[in-house]
Amino acid sequence: MQSHHARQSDWWVVRILVAVIVPIIGIYTLLEPFGRDQGIHATIAFALDEGLVTYRDVYNVKPPLTTVMHWVSQALFGHSMMAIRALDLGAATLAALGLVEIGRQLHRTPVFGIAAAIGFATLYYSYGYWEHAQTDGWAGFLLIPAVVLMLKAWACPNGRSRFLAMLGSGAILGVAFCFKYTIGGAGVLVFTPLAVNFLGKDEARFYFTDFLACFFGGAVALFVVMMTLATYGAWDDFIEIQRYVMSYVGYKGSDARSPLIGFQLPGMISVYLLVCVGVGLMLMVFDWIRNRRALVLVVAVLWIFSGWLSGAAQGKGFAYHFLPLVPAYAILIGFTVEYICHRTSGRAFSNAVAFSLLLGLYFPSQAATENMSGVRALRAANGDAVYVGNLVPFSDFDILETLEFAQTLKKHHGPDDTLFVWGFETMLYFLAETPPRYKFPYAWPFMVAHNDGRYDSDLLNRLKTVPPTHFVVQLQDATPWATGNPRSSEGQLQHFPELLAFLNENYSQIEEHSRFKLFQLKRDR
């Protein structure tokens, strides 16, 4: 049996391995195009860079840091679909390294650290292109450094160092909340020591000052965001939009998955990953029964609960809503692999067993399949086009047809031309490098079943004041699970007679694709 004692040099070897292996596992995502969500937020960030303030000048239903993340990606990597993928790959790598640090803080072995990190990458990259670079994922990533600081705090006596660590943890949770509101339930982790002491030995003590520090740190983070919005005159618009969006949670498609299914992530189509996660939880329970040490178990259970709650609270059953579960399941994978290796004799043999187990987890997974497809595409001269060409379209979204139409649009669209899109494919602004200057970059506010017409006059006044050069109407984009409305944008236009009259009176149709119609402002205007 192996000792849990590990040299610091061993941990540095693990960190280096993780920093290399995780980007290799996820490198193919640099070829991934936008999904609809990424297109929306990239466009809003592009508009911000053009001086259009989010919420005030550009309608946005998501929390504020989503736009910031996309803005940073474009500042670092340029105006391309690859930018957010590159930043997301970096964020995932840092998250994996954070799991290594959690292993160290929990006094596990380096095997736990590398297994948790590789398990995390395998689960995360078993998702598809629509799910990567999503706010749910980034909020889930941020739980990792928050937990690291909590573990550091619990290892300290009640005092300044402990208070600062909990303050930092709370601030990170506050930042995570500004990516995804439903992640707020993760605040329950601050009460971990109470459950630990109830269930077993005194591994960590709870002080009320822990809660106060965590709460204050989160409040400071939220205050900074609120003041930033107020400074740029966006606060009132932000609040109004959030109130309008609240009815969205009530929409649920007839084919929506049960929230309980959210526990099974896409990566678990690999039975090896499914078994490894389940076994890890059982082993934690057995370890608690045998040793009465519950810290690892309580952290894992509370993390799983808050991650599941974040997804279930959104009410749609989308797989990516449960992304915050990925780091928690990675900890279970780390525990399973460590347990097996701990029962072997000799360090070299133990490392060989760990290596074999991790290979056995990765290669049967969807992550490995996606990586191989990406590698084959990278070998082609036009790798991104090859990769995109192999993607399966959705009933309401086809990235290949969207990219093809964007090329058609650019043939007619000059550098000084303006654009308005009546539909959901906001990425057309981004692809045409034309910011959305009419506040409403997508038709969602006008499509929802609870639309009360509050935005109609605002949109019409903006369009009539400075009519856009080109007007796009989208077809086949009905999303009743997001709107409560079975009509497409083209169909909804028939129920907005003032906008339809404006279009008919001032525009001529010049192009028609299977999913888009392109109109141009009449020359006599």
Any key phrases for this structure?
60% helix, 4% strand, 4 strands, 2 domains, mainly alpha, four-stranded mixed beta sheet, 525 residues
What's the layout of helices and strands?
Layout lengths: L7 H19 L9 H14 L14 H14 L4 H24 L4 H15 L10 H20 L5 H18 L14 H8 L8 H24 L3 H11 L25 H21 L3 H18 L12 H18 L4 H16 L3 H14 L3 H7 L9 H14 L6 E4 L4 H5 L12 H4 L8 H10 L4 E5 L5 H4 L5 H5 L3 H10 E6 L3 E6 L4
Parallel strand pairs: 1-2
Antiparallel strand pairs: 2-4, 3-4
Q: Could you explain the architecture of this structure?
A:
It is built from 23 helices and four strands. The chain is mostly helical. It folds into two domains: 1-31 and 62-246 and 261-371, no CATH class; 399-521. A four-stranded mixed β-sheet has the order 1-2-4-3. Helix 1 (8-26) runs parallel beside helix 5, helix 11 crosses helix 13 (325-342) and helix 15 crosses helix 16 (383-389). The longest helix is centred in the first third of the chain and has 24 residues, at 82-105. The chain is globular. The model has no long low-confidence stretch (mean pLDDT 92). The chain crosses the membrane at residues 12-31, 76-99, 111-130, 136-154, 161-177, 183-200, 212-235, 269-289, 294-313, 319-341, 348-365. One of its GO terms (cellular component) is plasma membrane. Its main location: membrane. This is Glycosyltransferase RgtA/B/C/D-like domain-containing protein.
